[in-house]
Structures are given as structure tokens and as C-alpha cells.
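G., before I forget:
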Amino acid sequence: MSIAIMAAAVAVFTGIGAGIGIGFATGKASEAIARQPEAAGKINSALLLGCALAEGTAIFGFITALLIIFMG
Amino acid sequence: MRLDALKETLLDALSNQTAFTIPLLGGIPVAESVVVSWIILAVWMVLALVLTRNLRVRDPGKVQIALESAVSFLNGFVKTSIGRHWRPFAPWLGTVALYIAASNLIGIFGLVPPTKDISVTAALALMSMLLIYGAQFRYRGLVGGLRQFGAPMALLAPINLMEVAVRPLALCMRLFGNILGAFIIMEMIKFVAPAVVPAVFSIYFDLFDGLIQTVVFVFLTTLFTGEGIQEAD
């Protein structure tokens, strides 16, 4: 059981990557909006797409962890 | 032990309850998510009927103006993302947005969100996949649709074919994982501090996250559809 818990913890570490990725994307988007406020709409939609894709990795890690804990 | 009790509540949160069983053909189980979906559908249908009464061209009421701006916002968004053939897609995308938004937010009223059930999100993602690739073949023809898998260059064809499976999987898992994650975190918070604190976190996890995930699902579907059919003449 304890090994499964450790495995789940490792799987949840994917969240680090997603966090860094989303942080970078948001920082760059803020810079871009500061430079060109009139393009805010386009930048926002690109940011949303990027964040959704980056967040996907964290979600996959989360689902894997859940599967390990409850199914395995 | 308290930890075991927590695990019990989490297991309870993960499992999808059967609301009732139709006594036909040896019993058809009807899941709770289906029943809650029926409630959502009924509410939207009644709202659609009530809110669209007395529509006027001259001197429109407040409700009509709000509805019109919502619909034109949706149309404008779909138009900019999909391009020339936007018309047939806008109503479907709007309907999906309304359904997902209502099912993500219904946790506030104490009902179980249907999007917490992976079958519901899988069905939504499959419909998105049919929309994306159906549109691609509908507007490009059989040969053009197949050729689109080799765009922007033939080298990427394996990746494009893999995306046929990966896109719906990612859409399904993203919605499911977010809503389930928010649900579990809320259960944990309720377990640790039953009063006041959950209300504050509920604003983020139930309201904000639910709406963001609605936007993300519809946005990604629109974007993928547009990618498949843009520049098609």
C-alpha cells in the first residue's frame, strides 16, 4: 500500500511542470499586453489555449495518481 | 481513524451512484448524472421558452437585449475562430457551453455535477471529435479531408492521425479531472473545516473553475474545428 501511495505522489509531481509552464505563459502574456494593449483579446485567447494544453499534463498526472490509489 | 474516514468520503465521491433502475429488460440502471442532466435540460428548456416570449423588433425589453447580446457574442466568437462556414456550428457550441456551465455550477445547489462522471465527459468529447472531423470531411470532401491529415507537411501525418485519438481523450480528461479534482478538494476542505472556510474556497473551485473549464472546452472545440476547415473553398 505504501509503495502505491509513493507512486501516486510521484505521479502528482507532473503538476510542477504545468505550474512552471502556465506561469511562463502568463508572464509573457502580461508583458505582451503591457506592450500592445490593443491586442489584448488575441493574446488572451492564445494564452487560454496554451494554459489549457499545459494544464493537461497536470490533469493526466492527477488522474494517474487517482487510478493508482483507488484502482491499483 | 480519521484518515480512513476521509478515504471513505473520497471513495464515495469517486463512485457514480445509480439513482434508480428501470424495471425493463432485466433492469436498466439510470445513473445519478443522467438524472441531474435531465434536471439541467428541463431548466434550460423552460428558461428558453419563458425568456423568448414576447420578442419584439421595436422597443425590445431588457431580457431580449441581454439575450441578443449573448447570442451575438457567441456568433462573433465562432465567426472569428471558424471563418466562412461558421453558421451551422454556433448553435451547437452554444448549447454545449450552456450544458457544461450548468453542470459544473450545479454543485452549488447541492446536486452532484454530471461532469464528475467520466461517461458524460467522454460523450461530450466524442461529440466534439465527430464535429471536428465531420466538418473537415464535409467542407473539404473526401480527398481534401484526407489530405488535411498531411498538413502542413506530409511528415506530420502520423502526429495528425494520433491527434484524432489524443484530442478527445485530452478534452474528456481535462473536464473530468478538473471537476473531480475541485470536488475532491472541496470534500477535503469540508472534512477539515466544516464551517465558513468551504464557502470561500467554493467561489474559486465551484464558480471560477467551472466557468473556466466551460470556456476551455468550447474554445478548444471551436479552434480545432476551425483549424480543420479554414481556407476551404
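Residues 19-51+60-229 of chain B form one domain. The helical segments of chain B are 2-14, 32-51, 62-82, 89-105, 118-148, 157-192, 197-229.

More on Monday.
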